Structure of Dissimilatory sulfite reductase subunit B:
Amino acid sequence: KSIMDELYEYFTEFKLPAKLRISVACCINMCGAVHCSDLAVVGIHTKPPKVDHEKLPAVCEIPTAVRSCPTGAIRADMGKIQSVEVKDERCMY
């Protein structure tokens, strides 16, 4: 949010010379496509991410989220419809 707060005027007033791709990844494996972005933000977890099972289907494609984790820490949650679980022992935190 703080990055977009700073860049908001550039997006609303078209001050940038071309398209700007901003990506955010949650670990150093860079599964958020930060390697092919103009501006990349990599956050380092200090503990495994928590999953909000109610909001997840509305903001994320489950198969894409599962495939994007290079360590296999994110898996489909078989007990819940349209959700994932995080295997703490495989997470890069």
User: Anything to note?
Assistant: The chain has two domains: 1-44, 46-93. Residues 27 and 92 are 7 Å apart (CA to CA). The longest strand covers residues 22-25.
